[in-house]
Amino acid sequence: MKRIAAASSLLLAATALLAQNTSTTPAAPPAKPTPPTLTVILRERTNATEWFAATPDSEVYGHQDSLLRLGLQQRIQQWDYQLELGQNAEFGLPTDAVSAIPAQGQLGLGGTYYAANGNNQNPAAASLRQGFLRYHFNDERGALRLGRFEFFDGQETTPTDPTLAWVQNNRVAQRLVGNFGFANAQRSFDGADFKLRGDAWDLTGMAGRPTQGVFNMNANPELNVDIQYLAYSRYLVARRLLVRGFALGYHDGRTGLTKTDNRTAAARALDHRNIRIGSYGANLIGAMPAGSATFDFLLWGVLQNGEWGLLDQHAGAFAAEAGLRLTGARTRPWLRGGITRTTGDNNSTDGEHNTFFQVLPTPRQYARFPYFNMMNSTDEFVQIIDKPTAKLDLRSDLHFLGLTAGRDLWYGGGGAYDTKAFGFTGRPGNGHTSFSNLADISADYGLTPELTVGVYYAQSFGRRAVASIYPTDHNAQYGFFELDYRLSKPLRRTP
What we know:
about 500 residues, mainly beta, 5 helices
């Protein structure tokens, strides 16, 4: 906690220095007191998985996710607070979805949940999801928050243009830091963050430690992992462009864990040094009218350096995407495509680690069938999004996936989540860069303002890297049926 206290002091000092209002527009009036508001989030998801197979017997199973979050929040003059409790459970986890052969590993999400919870088929736990106090200052243009909260990189602003907002929230946010919201136990941070903003800019800083959780149902403990984040965002061209520059520091001080990389098991077992990595990047997104359509684009890039234990870290990543939305059509269909490419490591003995490190992301944002992530990967994709009715959202993606470095690993996972597992898994690429193709489709329908029903189905068509590990069946399937209930209700009327 000393590191968090020191970082919090730095944030306070930075806030004091930067909190000078240079805007020429009138200051926002102070927010009025609000009544306490109760929030209820209930998510029930029924999963079905058919994993890749190395034997004649395919691994086919189902399991149930259950997540309840109860919150209370209120604004009182210059202060607001939020308290939120979570209760998460898994039911019917498979007992045979973790292979004894290390290269095959955990056979889908069911195997991961089972292993992360002491081989318990029905684990459940309650936890404090959020508990923070926030002070608003500088005529509502600044805020300082202390406590336990969720944090999402790339989501520092709230675009008014719906196309720009979708691209930011779905194709920029949480690439490096997120709450892992798709997982049942999710992730929070203990620490502090601040925000300063003007008419067209935003400065956000954060220092914190992630909690346990994600796949481990006990999401209460804090991990010996630190992050520091600073980002500056600015709107350009009548708020049709949004540019962001950011820096992210990461330190993993967990002891007794073996790192996941392409070195031999013996070499990794001897590496007890901490991980210290800096990530420095920028992105530009835009949404421009083009007659009866809207053209959107995204450019995102990151460079990394630091120490991967005994190795020097040198890695990077970039993404380029574009789309066209027919805003003049009745259903406003939207066709998008792009590429994400991250570095891998083809030499495990040169004293360097060149695999891009994804830090603490929400990987399912970018891998809807989450059997891979953005480490040592090349992802070329097309997607189509449509909204046939006001209550129905459709989306379908097609991904052509490769491993950037064939002598590196096929990586999965989304970062540290307890003291026993590293958080990223790896299977050998066996010299192959040909990985897999992925096709999926999803539909979400709003039954009421509070209740949404969703279905998802995906099939992966494995290629050489997959076939070298799972020779019997190179293909896998995953789908789920989900109910989401969300309620926000004031507990008393405002006078």
